[in-house]
Amino acid sequence: MSEIDLARQRHADSTFIDLDLVEEEMEGIEFDKCEFRNVRFNCSTQTDVAFLNCTFVSCSFFDATFTRCKVVGSTFERCTFDITEVDGGDWSFVNLSRTDLGSATFRGVRMRETDLTEIRCENGTLRDCDLSGAILTGADLTRADLRGSDISSINPVDTALRRAVITGDQAVTLALALGLDVRDA
């Protein structure tokens, strides 16, 4: 399919290839089991959009904004997220493995059981996110801002956390994950 009818509120089992959605504004649209290949979402705005169990292959999200979007069960392969902003919403059960999120910002996003295997999030932001049950094996969170996020599923032995920004409570969580016996004076 060469175009998305943005006036339609629901799209199901559709494939979108080589689309230019640069600077498009989408609001309240639902995509169910759709496939996006080589679609450019650059500088676009998605508000209250649902991408349910969708597949994104070689898509560009440069400077895209997602506000309160539901992206549950979707998979991203070879996609770029340079300076992408995600504010709120539900990205649970999403596969973002091996994705570079170093310049992306996720704030207040539910990311339960999201596959973040080997993500590169150096200098990225995952603030106030629910990462419970997320898979972070081999993730690089060097200098990432993780404040306020549930980091209970991080194994500090197989996740790079050098100079990551965390709170005191999160430091205790990581110390316990390392098997340390944390006590008050």
Number of E-state strands? 13
Q: Could you give the order of strands across the largest sheet?
A: 3-6-9-11-12-13
- CATH superfamily of the largest domain, please? E3 ubiquitin-protein ligase SopA
Q: Low-confidence parts lasting 5 or more residues at pLDDT below 50?
A: none
Helix residue percentage? under 10%
Number of domain modules = 2
Strand and helix order: EEEEEEEEEEEEEH
Output the CATH topology of the largest domain: Pectate Lyase C-like
**Count of alpha/pi helices:** 1
Content of β-strand: 15-25%
The chain-level structural class is mainly beta
| CATH architecture verdict of the largest domain | 3 Solenoid
- The 3D shape can be described as elongated
Q: pLDDT average, as an integer?
A: 95
Please identify the top-level CATH class of the largest domain.
Mainly Beta
How far apart, in Å, are the first and last alpha carbons? 65 Å
- Major β-sheet, in short? 6 strands, parallel
Q: What order do the helices and strands come in, and which of them pair?
A:
Elements: E1 10-12, E2 15-17, E3 25-27, E4 30-32, E5 35-37, E6 45-47, E7 50-52, E8 55-57, E9 65-67, E10 75-77, E11 85-87, E12 105-107, E13 125-127, H1 168-177
Sum this structure up briefly.
This protein has 185 residues and is mainly beta. The chain has one helix spanning 168-177, and strands at residues 10-12, 15-17, 25-27, 30-32, 35-37, 45-47, 50-52, 55-57, 65-67, 75-77, 85-87, 105-107, 125-127. The protein has a six-stranded parallel beta sheet with strand order 3-6-9-11-12-13, with no helix packed on it. A four-stranded parallel beta sheet has the order 2-5-8-10, with no helix packed on it. It has a three-stranded parallel beta sheet with strand order 1-4-7, with no helix packed on it.
